[in-house]
Amino acid sequence: MPDSAAKLALRISRRLAQHAFKEILPLRADVGVVSFTFDDVPASACVAGAQALERHGARGTFYVAGGLTGALEEGKPCHTREHLRTLLATGHELGCHSYSHIRCDTLTAAELEQELDRNAAFLAELGVDPRTLNFAYPFGAYAYNAKRICGKRFRSSRITGGGTHEDSADLNALKTHRLSDVHVDAENYDALLQRTVRRKGWLIVNTHDVEDPPSRYGYTPEQLERAIAAALAAGCKVLPVNAAIDYLQQYAAPANA
After folding, report:
1. Which of 84, 91, 192, 227 has the fewest CB atoms inside 10 Å of its own CB, making it the most exposed?
2. Cα–Cα distance between 56 and 165 in angstroms, integer?
3. How many CA within 13 A on the CB side of residue 227?
4. DSSP state of 66
5. Mean pLDDT per 10-residue interval, the chain, length 257 residues
């Protein structure tokens, strides 16, 4: 298929995915929720990122691609198995980010299933229950077929960008705000946090490395510390993704149900 036709087909597939395979979670909690997530799980996220959350009595979700274990990304070291075991032992959540950190929107169904099976096996070796796994699309790249497959396998699937959730969230295409050294989202964190507080919504943020200086996808420890403190000071609950879903589901049913 020529490049132009392939790009058009991908755009159509992604547009269809926005309206298909939805799993809607109503947001009716008493307060807003903020979830801090880390993609690819650089070593600095396992240490400085986790410690920043722990100092505030909070925990995060770390989306792991098993193929990056012990490797370098953006010139920075990624997690080791020992890092991941420590995260689990201290109450953080490990999620799935494919095994090879590969775009999921261009894979065949068989290729995608193989990627996800391989990463599930990797995480299971560390003690992660595959029935409670949450997923983040590498590069935010999802499409119709990928959303169909991931919607069946994971408790939630997260894209990149889109801001905060208000009134409801599609668990099969959770939005996020990117905390990074290079500003890429239309609204900044503080504005989204205030909207989350007002609307009692759910704000999911993501970053990569946590060090100074950070990569273009990362954040400094001081910046992350301020973001966590601001969420708590605003009255939000700071919860990893699984705990956030548990909390929000308690309020999801209508009062007269």
Report:
1. 91
2. 23
3. 29
4. G
5. 70 78 96 98 98 98 98 92 98 98 94 97 96 95 94 96 96 96 86 97 97 94 97 98 98 67
What is the Cα gyration radius of the chain?
Answer: 17
- Which residues partner with 136 through β-bridges? 158
Token reading at 156: 């939630």
Question: Terminus-to-terminus CA distance in the chain, angstroms?
Answer: 51
Taking phi over 0 as left and psi of -120 to 50 as alpha, with beta for the rest, 119 belongs to alpha
Peptide bond into 214 cis (omega under 30): no
Tell how many helices (H) and how many strands (E) occur in the chain.
Answer: 9, 12
Dihedral sign, Cα of residue 161, residue 155, residue 223, residue 44: negative
Which residue in the block uniquely carries the two structure tokens 């050294």?
Answer: 181
Per the CB < 8 A criterion, the answer to whether 61 and 71 are in contact is no
Residue 91 amino acid letter: G
What's residue 230's pLDDT? 98
- Single pTM value for the model: 0.94
Backbone angles phi, psi at 123, to 5 degrees: -70, -35
Alpha helices for the chain (secondary structure H) = 3-19, 43-44, 50-55, 81-89, 109-125, 144-153, 189-199, 221-233, 241-249
Residue 80 amino acid letter? T
Rounded to 10 degrees, the C-alpha dihedral 118/37/136/193 comes to 170
54 Ramachandran zone, left/alpha/beta (phi>0; psi -120 to 50):
alpha
φ and ψ of 64, to 5 deg: -100, 130
CA distance 115 to 119: 6
Rounded CA separation 122/50 (Å) = 21
